[in-house]
Amino acid sequence: MAVQSLPDGYPQFIERADGARIWDVDGREYLDLMSSWGPIVLGHRYPAVEEAVRAQAVAGDCFDGTSPRMVELAEAFVDLVPYADWAMFAKNGTDATTLCCTIARAHTGREIIVVARGAYHGAAPWCTPYPAGVTAADRQNLVYFEYNDIDSLHAAIAGIEDRVAAVIACPVRHDVRREQELAEPQFARALRETCDRIGALLVLDEVRTGFRLDARGSWESFGVRPDLSAWSKAIANGYALSAVLGRADLRDAAGRVYTTGSFWFSAVSMAASLATLRVVSTPAFESNLRAAGQQLRTGLLAQAEAHGFRVRYTGPVQMPLLTFADDDDFALGNAWASAAINNGVYVHPYHNWFLNAAHTPEVIEEILQRTDAAYAALAGQPVAERGLLTG
Amino acid sequence: MAVQSLPDGYPQFIERADGARIWDVDGREYLDLMSSWGPIVLGHRYPAVEEAVRAQAVAGDCFDGTSPRMVELAEAFVDLVPYADWAMFAKNGTDATTLCCTIARAHTGREIIVVARGAYHGAAPWCTPYPAGVTAADRQNLVYFEYNDIDSLHAAIAGIEDRVAAVIACPVRHDVRREQELAEPQFARALRETCDRIGALLVLDEVRTGFRLDARGSWESFGVRPDLSAWSKAIANGYALSAVLGRADLRDAAGRVYTTGSFWFSAVSMAASLATLRVVSTPAFESNLRAAGQQLRTGLLAQAEAHGFRVRYTGPVQMPLLTFADDDDFALGNAWASAAINNGVYVHPYHNWFLNAAHTPEVIEEILQRTDAAYAALAGQPVAERGLLTG
Fold first, then answer.
1. How close B259 comes to chain A (CA, Å)?
2. Does one domain contain both B232 and B318?
3. Scanning B4, B68, B211, B275, which has the fewest C-beta atoms within 10 Å of its C-beta?
């Protein structure tokens, strides 16, 4: 089996999942560090979420109108996230990021959206990372700046300040195929100040970070609150849901934007989100996830040193990425990921990983036993030479 | 309770659903003729679909990669739909219509999409029916023609034939706030011929019609097959899923378009779709649904006449719309819908209805008993006068 764009050894088809483990169709077990690319934040098939799903499914899911779950969930988000005065729900992360831009345009009467170069905000023509089928008009109202570089933002908007509807940014620079990069607090604050100065909205794309770093909002500890934010992936522990949260004075614009989907009122994913939110909003969840991330980081770095590899471990520990020094073509990263998958650990060579609450200290220890074997296997391969400390 | 844009009496919150019935949070029961705006094609909580869902949920839903269900479902669609050589899956109908346009652009290297004026193809900025937050650039590469008017298509593309990537059309003119209109076979054939002549693709938007009119493709009986088609709503009997089907020679372009979503590989909705497809592909399903539609049409028209109202009953009988003559502002339509909802029938005054397989002859009879009471109630209202045959 081969999977397009993943190294040798990755399974094409997954059969089942439970807690921190997934099994492919050939019965091979993997300890999962990708968490289904983010949605699984409590572990696969987390009992309280599955129970909420079963209870809602008995009544039904997709009705002629919304169920009471939508109000309950909107209220739960508004209670959780300090800047949020309302919530609306959709299915894809892309639905939510696109809606934020559309609401910002409706509110400001302006057209330009300012985006960090290389950032991923979804897979619609305006934001998809590859050009096939995309027209120039799809990007006509976008301008670009460099993440963590406020001067580049000022340069990008010079002379068009009064045409900028919004600046959209991820809370972390989690671009693929590069080391991950935390936002600098002064950069986040400067984004907020610039938006306020020019009358533009600050949109935070929490699709990948939401419920993993700080459930109240990933920049809450910086004291930086956006006007609008987009959420998806982890908010319902694997059930299809996304959300837009916003400030009270944007309610009118949000109400004027026509948007809907056939399944946007479905109650089951909202029941799942309510059950997920109850867990992620506890201090124990947050500290345990951080501790798991720290344990994994410490272990993987110690193993790299023990096996003589020069590695970089970047990003928040809950969403890390392991890369190898002087490995621009990811030959070494790919080889290590192959060795990891062959030893039963599902990671990614150039996209951030996602920890979840099923990564207990015991599971992390089991992962580390397997990654130690992966490093050992890698050390015996020709490609490893260029990554070795003594190489 | 009041619902924005629906007449008085409509429930805001739905609590549960079963077969042809829904119940609001106050315990009021309705016979449902909207089928959750299309997704419910076998009836709410259809046993074989719910059983497939439960079986898949035990293994899991949202994995790190796809499950075997995706291959099984793609093969089932390709077996069912004569022109389809491959399938890809997403969540929203809008995902599927947008993807069709993007694939057409990638394949042809052209930018223009030709759209019927007033047609609904989804709620993204390029197609949403209301302008809030939409920029001119979002529509820059669209040109418009009039449905069922091939001359208007030729006029729309005059001089730009070699820039047209695709013509997108619904199999039925099911625009809101107007009488529904079947496609004329010669119009459908002329669309096909025109696309072939200018080297553009024909995209059929089956989101609303799919699995309701002819599961093989709504224009199959005309002998007209599109190059690409978009499906959603009914294909998984209420579970969130959409699909793009295409011809073999478009596989390369479809593979080059970067598109994905966090929940696009989820297995539960695909298991639901497999179970749904098994039913809708049977001759009995199709003839029963048509018979139910005919029974409803005959009954509602007879009642209108008996109560002295001049009405129009348009669209396919499986997706009909009842409107009143000389009722451009829908005052009478709204009043009748209010009377219907107050008598326990959930219809819509200006959006097509959707029949489903739970509409047995007995259920249709029960609906008609209730609509008879609705006509009677309407006849006693001042607004009714202008719709009366003798008025």
1. 5
2. no
3. B4
